[in-house]
Design goal:
The protein has about 500 residues and is mainly α. Helix content is about 65%, strand content about 5%. The protein has 3 domains: about 1-170, no CATH class; about 290-335, no CATH class; about 335-509, no CATH class.
């Protein structure tokens, strides 16, 4: 016998939905608070240039004032840190990364002044916070689950590697933001474009997609990412290939006539036009200071030289820029100088050789140290071991499951990881560092969250209590480890013995 429907049922359902919605909003807010606190608290420490800040901060200053990077005299760091911010030379500097990341760094210096250490790092920290929010958007777009989105955001918010890179005026945290933003635009495009293709074919109408604003935005954003570091090109290429291949397969699966010719030869060209030219235009726009000026490195190369053949007809600035890029390329592929913290890409995923950005020790009473035996202050790009080992295990699971079932969502996660990680294996002989992995960390976390959800479902069929205990236990341990390692991610004063306690394996030292 069926029960009689009453308004009380609607009331109970509405209250449940409202309560859940409130908890979800609270969860998102808490994640963002954690991300903001870990990235902004004591951001000005240390009041000196850390690791490669010695290049990027000073380059950002000269770029913002001269339109291109200038050289600095030997020993300029001490003077710069003391407030002598404009002691650069008149000669241009040879730099090996595009300008956009340094333009971003200069924005904080413009706001707070070049003598402010917070100003050096502010834009990187804000983009690091924004990346956490963006990851939650991407996770929700992929998994249609607010809970999984919050879980992904939390893991990125608390991870030590992400925290350290967001607190340091390097290029990699900014690169990660624009890579992830471009990926989100790409997901929106795919969500809409695939429906348009299927509907058009079912209605026997023209299935070509001429105007794809979201793919165009992906091109602009990934062009910006490539204007920070050239590794942004990896994801641009990966997405471009994916769009053509996946949409061609879609056309075949819905029995479109001439699916190969339409998908590859026609739509493929249209997709290329939507994506690549805007990426190139965005990239060139970030070089505008160098292009419009005359004092940048190699800026006047074409005055006495010319590119071969028809390329010699290009404008002088374009020939000079091409020549400069040849120099940069040769530098990158030939960079084999040994470094004490270089790390083979095969060890990146489990953090075998994290990069130490800063270490100093102080006697009691010195520099605010109130520990009787003295203080150690370290900033190491060391990730949360549980998150990274879990992400690596999840990556293996995702790859196995994808090749077995070809689930599209998993393919999209693997697209991000493979596009941004596998090319580094080709250049394994080059001098590279473990913190480069932060650029594809969001995709690793997406894979981890998916694997955790699948494991919870499996456990839930046997014992809901065990399933819930597992999830709570995992995140409790992850948070505890992040709190434990936070001092060596952010430079908090601890006793030397406490620093040693956190260096679990010799390769971390």
């Amino acid at each position: 016998m069926s029960q009689k429907y009453t308004l009380i049922d609607d009331y109970h359902w509405l209250m449940l939905r409202t309560t859940r919605g409130t908890l979800e909003r609270l969860g998102i807010a808490c994640v963002m608070v954690v991300a903001a606190v870990t990235r902004l608290w004591n951001l000005g420490y240390p009041s000196k240039l850390v690791f490669d800040e010695t290049y990027y901060v000073k380059d950002a200053l000269t770029l913002s004032h001269e339109g291109h990077e200038k050289s600095w005299p030997e020993g300029a760091d001490l003077a710069f840190q003391s407030g002598d911010s404009f002691g650069y030379l008149s000669e241009p500097a040879f730099v090996v990364h595009p300008p956009f990341g340094k333009w971003l760094i200069s924005s904080g210096m413009w706001l707070l002044g070049p003598e402010s250490t917070i100003g050096w790092r502010l834009s990187t920290a804000l983009l690091g916070i924004a990346t956490v929010a963006l990851l939650m958007l991407v996770a929700y777009k992929l998994f249609k689950s607010t809970t999984m989105a919050i879980a992904a955001g939390l893991l990125l918010a608390i991870d030590g590697l992400a925290i350290t890179l967001s607190r340091t005026a390097l290029l990699d945290a900014s690169l990660t933001f624009f890579l992830l933003l471009g990926f989100w635009f790409f997901l929106v495009d795919q969500e809409r474009s695939r429906v348009r293709i299927v509907n058009a074919i079912n209605q026997s109408s023209n299935s070509l997609l001429w105007f794809r604003p979201w793919l165009m935005l992906a091109g602009v954003t990934l062009g910006a990412a490539s204007s920070i570091k050239w590794s942004g090109l990896y994801l641009l290429a990966g997405i471009g290939i994916y769009v053509v291949v996946s949409e061609t397969i879609l056309r075949r699966n819905v029995d479109e006539k001439n699916w190969f010719a339409t998908g590859v030869l026609v739509q493929g060209v249209l997709s290329f036009v939507s994506l690549v030219p805007l990426a190139i235009a965005t990239y060139l726009l970030t070089w505008l200071g160098w292009i419009l000026g005359s004092g940048g490195y190699s800026r006047n190369w074409a005055d006495d030289n010319s590119l071969p053949g028809a390329f010699g007809w290009l404008p002088d600035w374009m020939q000079s820029l091409w020549s400069y890029h040849e120099l940069i390329y040769r530098f990158h592929v030939g960079l084999t100088t040994e470094h004490s913290y270089q790390a083979h890409p095969l060890g990146w995923l489990i953090g075998l050789r994290p990069t130490a950005f800063f270490y100093e020790s102080y006697a009691a009473g010195e520099n605010g140290c109130d520990i009787s035996g003295g203080c150690s202050s370290a900033i190491t790009a060391l990730g949360n071991p549980l998150i990274w080992i879990g992400s690596t295990a999840a990556l293996i699971y995702l790859a196995f499951r994808y090749f077995k079932h070809q689930e599209r969502t998993l393919g999209l996660v693997l697209l991000g990881v493979s596009s941004l990680y596998l090319p580094w294996l080709i250049f394994a002989g080059r001098t590279v560092f473990q913190f480069y992995v932060v650029s594809f960390q969001p995709w690793l976390i997406l894979g981890l969250v998916f694997a955790l959800q699948q494991l919870r479902r499996h456990l839930h069929t046997r014992s809901p209590r065990v399933a819930n205990a597992f999830v709570v236990g995992f995140f409790t341990v992850a948070i505890a480890l992040s709190v434990f390692f936070l001092p060596v991610n952010t430079g908090i004063f601890i006793a030397f013995e406490q620093w040693q306690l956190r260096m679990w394996i010799p390769s971390w030292v």
